[in-house]
Amino acid sequence: PAHRGRRGRRPAMLGPATAHPRPSVGRRSPYAPRAPMPPAPAPDAAAGLAFEFWNDHAWQAYPPTEQRLLQAAMRPRQPLVALPCGRYHVKDFDKVEHGFAVQLNLATGFRRCVRIRPPYVLDGHPRASCLPGAGDHFAFL
C-alpha cells in the first residue's frame, strides 16, 4: 500500500518532542495577527491635488511617486495614465474630478475607483468663501 515505507514497514511516527518544531528565531507565524498598515503620508499642501483609490474598505492615498505622476498628468489632461509599477493604468483620468476615473489592473482586469481628495479647487475656478447653508443643521427623525 501507499502508506508503507520502502521495505513494507510503516513510517515511524513523530513523537511529541518533534510533532511541532519551534519556529526559527525572528520568523513570524503565518497565522499571527498582522499589524495594520500605516497610512500613506499626506502629500505636501504646496504639491497641489492629492489622488486616492478605493481599497475595498476606505480611500487610500497613492504613494508620493504616483502622486507626482498623476499631478503632472493634469496638465495637459490625459485620458490614460500608466502608473510607474507597470501593473496599473488609470483610465478616464481626464474625468477624474467628475468621479469617472478608474484604476485598472492589467493582469486581472480588476477596477478600482480613483478620486481627488476633497476639498480641492481646479485651476480656473474660484475657491468658495462659504458654502450656502453652512449654518443649517439637519437631523433625521
Helix content estimate: under 10%
Tell me the series of helices and strands, N- to C-terminal. HEEHEEEE
Strand arrangement, major sheet: 2-1-6-5-4-3
Radius of gyration: 26 Å
Strand content: 15-25%
Largest sheet: 6 strands, antiparallel
Shape field = extended
Number of helices: 2
Task: Give a verbal description of the structure.
This protein is mainly beta. Helix content is 9%, strand content 17%. The protein contains 2 helices and 6 strands, in the order H-E-E-H-E-E-E-E. It has helices spanning 16-19, 64-72, and strands at residues 51-54, 59-61, 80-82, 88-91, 102-105, 111-116. Strands 2-1-6-5-4-3 form a 6-stranded antiparallel β-sheet. A hairpin with a 5-residue loop joins strand 5 and strand 6. The longest helix is centred in the middle third of the chain and has 9 residues, at 64-72. The model is unreliable at 41-46 (pLDDT under 50).
